[in-house]
Hints:
The chain has helices at about 25, 50-55, 95-100, 110-115, 120, 135-145, 170, 180-185, 210-220, 225-235, 240-250; strands at about 45, 160-165. By secondary structure, it is mostly helical.
Amino acid sequence: MEKVRARSTDQMRPLEKTGPRPIHKFLSFLVFLAGGIGLPAPMVLAEDAAGAHDLFKKCAVCHEIGTNARNKVGPHLNGLDGRTAGTVDRYKYSRAVKKAGGGGLRWNAETLTEYLRKPRAFLKGTRMSFAGMKDPDQLAELVAWLIGFSADGKAGSMANSDKTELLGASASALEGDPEYGEYIAGECVTCHQISGKEDGIPSITGWPKENFIHALVEYKNKLRANPVMQTVTSRLGDEEMAALAAYFATLKHK
Length: 254
């Protein structure tokens, strides 16, 4: 039976459940074509020096750092300096990271620099979709800032903070229908494995719905310059975004 929820007048009409829509063939590239969705996650950050805060926005797709930082798509990054890889409580790491930690990998300025320069070359099998940071000066600045945060989220004597807001509040406010999301994401899972395995294509399994929706809205509003993604998301209304986000959020890495 078709499930249709109330929506605002500027939203698209509901997708019929009688057959596939053209947008489906594009949905599988939501992360792949983008090379990893670069969006800010909700977090509290200490005031940065010389632009490190802005550089961190590339990491904020998955991580929080600072006061009250939590595990999200990726683990929180407080207390990185000297931390054994794969040891943050209540976060499910990939086998590659756990194996590296068991083998003695500890995060410090040197190892973190090598990892962030090209993650998949440094740690084969990592689920992190970030392609890497080429600029050596920016990389050094970001690493120095990251390892300056203590385990309780404090960065020196800096007390000022701000909060990065996510887009798509109207869609995030909806109770997305996972079954509907599964229906319209049929083409997505032909590339993005529901098990969370990657095989060359970034995983979107288990993403928090707010982050997932934010990515869609950024493309829809042309804040990200990818014409294919802009076309795809222009056809999605709040209900469709909420449904897709709800479905992928229910999936677990296996």
